[in-house]
Amino acid sequence: MVLLREARERSDARLVDDCREGDASAFDEIVRRYKDRVYNVVYRFLGNHEDALDVSQEAFVQAYRGVDGFRGGSQVYTWLYSIAANLARNRLRDSTRKGRNMGTSLEAMVTTPAVNARRTPRAEAEGHELDETLQACLNELPEHYRMAFVLRTFDDLSYDEIAKTLDCPKGTVKSRINKARSLLRERLEALSLV
Question: Mind listing the domains of the chain with CATH numbers?
Answer without folding.
Answer: 1-103 (1.10.1740.10)
